[in-house]
Design a protein that fits this description.
The chain contains 14 helices and no strands. By secondary structure, it is mainly α.
Length: about 450
């Protein structure tokens, strides 16, 4: 049971309805559930910690530990791949145990544990192990966290809810790099100071999760006990209750697949791909992910086009984060109003326009601002909106695992895209590689328009 009243997530039998928020008018609902705001605060604090490390990590590895840029790219790709591989595990554990908050808490805890370990990692293998631990935590927490958001929000408001959460998350991504550069400028041992402050902030995020995020939800159904055979009756049997289409349970003749002991099985999440809408969403997310150039390469391309000095390179992500922060909530509301799939595909068209600007002969002073604005708009229109669209076709009992299926496919596709683009850049040069990526993205976007899910 959640703090917010939600049409899409009715309370289990026997659970009292939540009290109205202080000062709320009778019959009125809060614009965003308290659970969403609490999780947004956790993500804001955690992203401050994570982005502090992300902002200085390339310089630390290349200048401090002597890692080559190619080696850093491989390390970055590998630890992002670790995150993709464990996302399905996190979603499945949340569904199987019914404790999405607990599984997310383990993920946040692992990431927080990795921050102080960076103080002890003075070799590339040690840093790689710590980063793998951090990304394992991120992979475990992502799907259960998104499941908590979707389960606490009415179906017609999920785009707004995910937009609010992503906006708060991105506020942390905006603050983190700025805080890291301030510490580097004033601390004698800058890198260690950044890692220490990052560890303290990460621990604060875990505390906020434990104290302020509601942990109640519908418990996983136990194995049904055998019932005595009823006596014959002349009365007709009552009609079976209909599933709520808004939760994605309609059209599921077999119900939720469960293991012999009555618990939800991992196979149940994968079986969701048999549903046409779920399959279309996952396939489109995978194809578009394969054509998406990673953030690091976009920033490198922008630096090469503008001749930006190296000392300012690490501030480029702040431009993307600022655009994301400003646009996440408006685009989430727009997705609820005109359709999530339209906004999702439109976000990729914004990214395609950014690629076009990087390929164009334009060298005006507004170029970096325009590219970063489009880059941030891409994330604002796709990140939370995709999860809101997928939540509409996934049953409540499989919400975490179902969202993780989509997230895992997208993350693995983007991991492959990063490796492929890096190889193409090495073989052909940056402009031909980007041109191929742009053509592929245009084709994938056109296909996604044709494969639009009925309920998205």
């Amino acid at each position: 049971m959640y703090v917010a009243d939600s049409r899409g997530t009715p309370a289990p039998t026997g659970t009292p309805a939540p009290a109205a928020a202080p000062g709320a008018r009778p019959g009125r609902r809060a614009a965003v559930a308290p659970t969403v705001l609490a999780l947004g605060t956790v993500s804001l604090v955690t992203d401050i910690s994570s982005e502090m490390v992300t902002a200085v990590l390339p310089l630390y590895l290349v200048a401090g530990l002597g890692l080559t840029p190619l080696g850093f790219g491989l390390l970055d790709g590998l630890y992002n791949g670790v995150s993709a591989l464990v996302r399905l595990t996190g979603g499945h554990l949340g569904d199987r145990t019914g404790r999405h908050k607990a599984v997310a808490g383990v993920g946040y805890g692992l990431s927080a544990l990795g921050k102080p370990l960076l103080l002890l990692a003075h070799s590339v293998p040690a840093v790689g192990a710590v980063l793998a631990l951090d990304r394992t935590g991120k992979g475990l927490r992502t799907a259960p966290r998104d499941a908590l958001i979707s389960l606490s929000t009415p179906p017609e408001q999920r785009g707004r809810a995910f937009g609010v959460h992503r906006a708060m998350d991105t506020a942390g991504a905006l603050i983190g790099p700025l805080l890291a550069f301030l510490i580097l400028g004033y601390a004698a041992d800058g890198y260690d100071a950044v890692f220490t402050v990052s560890a303290c902030v990460a621990a604060l995020g875990v505390v906020v999760l434990a104290l302020f995020v509601p942990g109640h939800r519908t418990a996983p159904r136990p194995k049904p006990s055998p019932r005595p055979r009823p006596r014959a009756s002349l009365r007709p049997a009552p009609a079976a209750p209909q599933a709520d289409a808004g939760d994605g349970t309609a059209g599921d003749p077999g119900g939720t697949a469960r293991a012999p002991d009555g618990r939800i099985s991992l196979r149940a999440s994968l079986v969701l791909l048999r549903r046409p809408d779920m399959r279309r969403i996952t396939v489109c997310a995978l194809l578009l992910g394969l054509c998406t150039v990673s953030d690091a390469f976009v920033f490198l391309l922008l630096q090469h086009r503008t001749g930006l000095a190296d000392r300012w390179f690490a501030l480029l992500p702040i431009g993307t984060a600022a655009a994301f922060l400003l646009l996440a909530l408006p685009l989430g509301r727009l997705a609820d109003r005109i359709g999530r799939w339209r906004v999702f595909v439109g976000g990729h068209l914004a990214l395609l326009l950014g690629y076009g600007l990087l390929l164009s002969p334009w060298h005006g002073p507004a170029l970096p601002y325009a590219v970063l604005l489009l880059h941030g708009a891409f994330y604002a229109a796709t990140d939370g909106v995709l999860m809101a669209a997928a939540a509409g076709v996934v049953p409540e009992a499989l919400r975490g695992g179902g969202l993780a299926v989509v997230q895992t496919g997208q993350a693995l596709a983007r991991f492959a895209a990063s490796l492929g683009f890096g190889a193409a850049w090495t073989a052909w040069g940056e402009r031909p590689a980007l041109a191929v990526a742009a053509v592929a993205l245009a084709a994938a976007a056109a296909l996604s328009v044709r494969l639009r899910p009925a309920d998205a």
